[in-house]
């Protein structure tokens, strides 16, 4: 056990040094690009396993073809894009803008998704919910627009560095769309020196039309932080026990300031297609950057007594 702690500490120290390096060599950049392409291929392979996956992939191919020579979306093209839904339900996501750039050293593929609310098909549908949905999607769209605009600005600023390399990607994925909830995931990858992925989650309660906060899932006043956090720690220990290559910052006195203690009200989450709570962490949040973005599915038994 003592030897494992020393090895973990050495690994963490090495990760810190790698992360703090000011720049990447061209060979490292090429390796990074290769890993990104492999990840894309794997994702496409999984999508092809279902009819819906094939349908989404086909729509995405049309989108890419439409923007292959257009770094910014025109008003007419944007209107046409709104006719290509990603998934059904009360809320749908479309690619509003696809910014592309590649000169061999600087590469960008930045999608800006936009949420829209489908028109009510019945008079019985709650008009208040519809109004809330419109306001919520408008708020989410504004946040996403601001974020992607900032990334594009940072990328274009980096073009001034003739010797540097940078890779920026923004993609989106509809994680779940049920009769109760809709979740959009925004995947942002930025590499300029060292690289990192940051994910953003936007979950809408379709019963109220409002954006869902973690606390909204539980009985008012209930302590959900403790049981969820303890379950995550248990899953971390089990994963590390099964695989020595899995490393989380947990129970290690040598890096006590990094050790995971508990989630917060602001911790990212979503509800999967089975209605289970999934807690999400970005790279470097609870383990070395090499662990990537990690997720923990919380068993219904853990929160059954306090879940609404």
Topology:
Layout: H1 2-19, H2 26-47, H3 51-67, H4 75-81, E1 91-102, E2 106-117, H5 127-158, E3 166-177, E4 181-192, E5 194-205, E6 210-211, H6 225-242, E7 268-271, E8 277-281, E9 294-298, H7 300-303
Parallel strand pairs: 2-3
Antiparallel strand pairs: 1-2, 3-4, 4-5, 5-6, 7-8, 8-9
pLDDT averaged residue by residue:
78
Label the overall shape.
Answer: flat
Examine the secondary-structure arrangement and name the CATH architecture of the largest domain: 2-Layer Sandwich
Give the DSSP E fraction (strand runs of 2 or more residues).
15-25%
Radius of gyration: 21 Å
Strand order of the largest sheet: 1-2-3-4-5-6
The residue fraction in helices comes out at 25-40%
Low-confidence stretches: 15-25, 39-88
CATH-derived topology of the largest domain: Heat Shock Protein 90
The CATH class of the largest domain is Alpha Beta
Rounded to the nearest angstrom, the distance between the terminal CA atoms is 42 Å
Query: What string gives the helices and strands in order?
Result: HHHHEEHEEEEHEEEH
Q: Count all strands and give the number.
A: 9
Number of domains: 2
Largest sheet: 6 strands, mixed
Structural class: alpha+beta
Q: What is the number of helical segments per DSSP (H or I, 4+ residues)?
A: 7
